[in-house]
Amino acid sequence: MTRIDSAHETLTEEFRGTGSISDSIPEPRATQADSGSVLERDPGMPSSTWRLRSDAWEYLRFGVKRLALGNDDTDTLTPDSEIYRSLRSLETIEMYWAGFGQRYVTGITDLLEAGDYVTALDRIGRVVNRLRGDTVPEEPREEFIDELDRLETSGDGDPRTRFEVLVIDETTAADRDTMRAEALRLRNPADDFIYEYVIVPSADDAVAAVLTNPNILACVVRPGFSDRTRQSLSKDLKEAIGLARTDSENTNTIAPARSSLASVQRVLGIADTLAAIRPELDLYLMAGAHIEELAGALTRRFRRVFRREDQLELHLTLLRRVSHLYDTPFFSAIQDHARRPVGVFHALPVARGGSVVSSKWIKDLETFYGLNLLLAETSATSGGLDSLLAPVGTIKKAQDLAARAYGAKHTFFVTNGTSTANKIVHQALVAPNDVVMVDRNCHKSHHHAVMLTGARPAYLEAYPLNDFAFYGAVPISRIKQMLLDYRAAGRLDEVRMITLTNCTFDGIVYDPERVMAECLAIKPDLVFLWDEAWFAFAAFHPVTRRRTAMSAAKRLEERLKSGTHAAAYRAQQSRLFGADGDPAPDAAWLNERLIPSPDARIRVYATQSTHKTLTALRQGSMIHVYDQDWVREAEESFHEAYMTHTSTSPNYQILSSLDIGRRQVELEGFELVQRQLDLATSLAQAIARHPLLRRTFRVLTAHDLVPAEHRGVGRPMPLRDGLTSMWQAWAHDEFVVDPSRITIEISRTGVDGDTFKHEHLMDRYGIQVNKTSRNTVLFMTNIGTSRSAVAYLIEVLVKLADRFEEEQAQRDPELPFESSVESPPLPDFSAFAPGYATDASLPDGDLRAAFFNGQRRGTVEHVSPEVLRERVRAGEKPISAGFVTPYPPGFPVLVPGQVITSEVLDFMAVLDTREIHGFDARRGYRVLRG
C-alpha cells in the first residue's frame, strides 16, 4: 500500500468518525428585511471587511447607547433599521473572527428584542474596547454577563500579543466550546503570546476567513469539514472564494489523484488554496489514526500532523512557530550589545555616546535621538553582531528570514539604497559588451550601472502618456520585437539581461510571469532584473503578490515542470518553426503568447526599496534572488559586486530596521496592506463622488493610464468594484494599476503640479507628496496611513477646490481662463551617435565610452539651449556628453553618446522643474566636440 493510499484510508476513517452534523451548524438568522440569501448589508470586498466590522460595532454602540439613555424612540428599532442591518452583517462576519462569534451577536439581538438595552450596550462596549485595543475587564459585572459571554469573549485583560488560529472542521456548538475552553486551560503565564480559535465548518468558510481576518497566523485542518459554505455571503466574497480555489487548482503541478483518493485530495486541495492565498500561514493536520503514514504522504503541505488528543503538543507548536516568526536575530543582538558594559577602543568616538554625553555643546543630539541610538553604535562585528560583508551569524540569519518572508531563495540587505542595489546586480551579472535591454524611463541608477559595467544598453520605449506628462510601461510586444530583431541580426547571444521597473513610480504594474515566460521562449537563458523599489508591500497581499518578481519566478518554475506545459510547448514549436527549422515570420511570434522551453532557466533578481513602502529606516533596501544557476553562474561574482559597492561600515540602525520590519510583515503584513489599499480606494471614491472635488480634480484610472490594447475589459478602478474585480484584472491583464497610488489630474486648478505641491499642499497645509507632473499630483497610501490622515487630505482638497473656484469666479469674464496646464510631448530615445552606436540597425550603444569622453577636458563644450536649437535646425547632430535628468519625470532625458534632437529641446524648454541634474542653466548643455 502506498503512502497516499494509506493516507486515504486514514482520512476516510476521520470522515466516518465525525458523522453528519451539518444540521448543528447555526446559520445567520433571517428577518423579514432579508431578501434572499445575500445579506442586505453586504459584507463587501474582503479588503474592507476590517472596516465594515469596526464601523458596525461602533455604530451599534452609538445607536444602542441612545436607546439605553432614552434619547431615541424605541419604535425606530425595526427589522430594517440600521441597528438590525449592522447585526445581520456582524452575524456573518463574526464567524471568521475569534473572541466573540455568532452566538454573541445573537445574544445581543435577543437582549434588544427583550428591551434590555443596558446589558446589550455593555456587551457591545466589550467588543468595541477589544477592537480599539483597550483592556477588557477581567471580571465583568455578573448581572451583565453570563457564562456563554465569558467563554466567547475570553476577555482576560492579558496584555500579551494575541493571534488567531483557524480550525476547519464541522463541529457542534458543544465541541467548539470545549476546544476554546481547552485553549484557555493550556495558557501559561510564561508564554510570550496567546491565541484564540476561529472554527469554521467548510472549505469555503476557511477561504473567507483567511481573506477577511488578518489575525489568523495558523490553520489546523481536521478532515471532517464540508466543502461549501452555508453562510449568507456577499456576491463579491463568494466570487473571491471561487477564484482563490480555482487559482490554486490551476497552479498545482501535482498530478490529479485517482477517484479513490478523493478524500486525500480534498484535504490537499484546501491546503494548497490557503497556502496560495496566505503563504505565511502555518498549516497543520489533525487526524485520528495512522498519522505515521499521513506524515510521510502530506509533509509537503503541512508543517506537522497531530493526533486529536495531542492538544498540548499542538499548543506548544503554535506558540513556538510564532516565536520563530517573531525572532529578529540582528535587532536582538544590537539590543544585547547596547545593554552590555563595553570598553570602546576602536575608531568610532560616537560609540556608547563617548563623544556626546560628556560634551557641553552637542548634548542635544542625545536629547533628540535618545541614548539607545548611541549605545547601539559600534564598528564591532563580533560579540553577536556579525559582518554585513561576510555574514555567518545574526545578519546571515536575518537575511535568511527575509528570504523566507519574500519568497526568495536568497536575500541580501543593502544600507545605501536601491540605487546601490541595482549597481550590485548589474555588476554581478553583466560583462563589458553584453547587451542589456533597459526600460528607458527606469531609475537613473540603472543607466549609471550600465555605464559602470561597460554593457551596451538597448533602450526599450514605454508607451507615453502625453496628456499627463509621464510614461507608462513597456508593452510585451516591444520587448519581444527587440529580441526577435537581435535574433534576426545574429546577435541574440549578446543579449544578457532585461531590466524593468515594477511597479513604476506612477503605479503601472507588469505581469512578470508573462513577460519572463515569453522572453524565455525566444532566449531561454535570459536574466531578469525587476526594480521593485516601490512594490515591497505587494508580497503580503494575495492579489498583489502574484505580480511580484519572486512569486512569478516560483510559479514559472513550477509551471515548467508540468507535463501539460511540455506538451503545450511542443505543440507551439511545431507552429513557430517550419520543417526546415527556420522560424516563422515575426508576426506569428508576436501574435501568440509564447511558451518557454521546459529547459529554460529561471534567473530572476529583484531590488527593493524596503524603506519606501514598508517599515525600515531611510536607505534600507534588499536584493532578492531566485536564480536556478546561482551557485554555478552568479554566487561568486555577486559577492564581489556586493563587496565593491557595500560600505565596510554599514549603518547598524538600518540593518536592525530591516530585520524588525521583516518581523512586522510576516505577522501583520496582510492586515496592513489590506488597510493601505482600502484607504486608497476610499480616497479615490471620495474625490470622485464629492460635487466640488470632482469639478476641480479628476482621479486617473486604469482607462487613463493603460491604453485599451494593453488592458482587459475590466472596470477603470477594479478594487473599487470589489476584490473579485481586482483579482481578475491582476490575473489576466497585461498591465494593471497599483490601487495604493492615486493620481489626480489638476488641470482645472490653473496651476502646475510643482506649484500645487509646494505652495498649496506643503507650505499651506503640511501635506507631503513625492511626485508631480505638469498637470498631475500623485498621492500614495502606505502601511502607516490612517483613516484620519485620509480624512484630513480630503478636507484640504475641499478647501483648495473652493479656493480655486472662488479665484476663477473673480476673474475678469472678458479674459479667457486657461483651464489646463500645457503638457509637453514626451520625447523618445533618439539614437546613439555614430561612433558610439554598435549597429545602425539595432539600438544598443557604447554608453561607457561616451561617458568617459565627456569627462575629459577639451572634449566638451557648453552650449546654450538657444544656440543648440539653431545647430539642430541647421542639420547638425550634437551629442550629449553626460546624463540630463529632470525631476520630474526623474529619468535621463539625455544619456552620454545620445544625439540631441529638437524633440528633446522642446520638451526641456517647457519643463519648469526646480531640479535638473546634469544641466547648468547658466552655461547650457554639455556637448561632445566633433
From TrEMBL:
InterPro entries in the cross-refs: LL-DAP_aminotransferase, Orn/Lys/Arg_deCO2ase_major_dom, PyrdxlP-dep_Trfase, PyrdxlP-dep_Trfase_major
Transmembrane parts of this sequence: none
Domain of life of the source: Bacteria
The keyword S-adenosyl-L-methionine appears for this protein: no
SUPFAM superfamilies listed in its UniProt record: PLP-dependent transferases (SSF53383)
Keyword ATP-binding in record: no
Segments for region (Disordered): 15-46
Cofactor: pyridoxal 5'-phosphate
Keywords in alphabetical order: Aminotransferase, Transferase
Domain Orn/Lys/Arg decarboxylases family 1 pyridoxal-P attachment site, residue spans: 328-553, 603-787
Identification of the protein by name: Ornithine decarboxylase
Species assigned in the record: Leucobacter coleopterorum
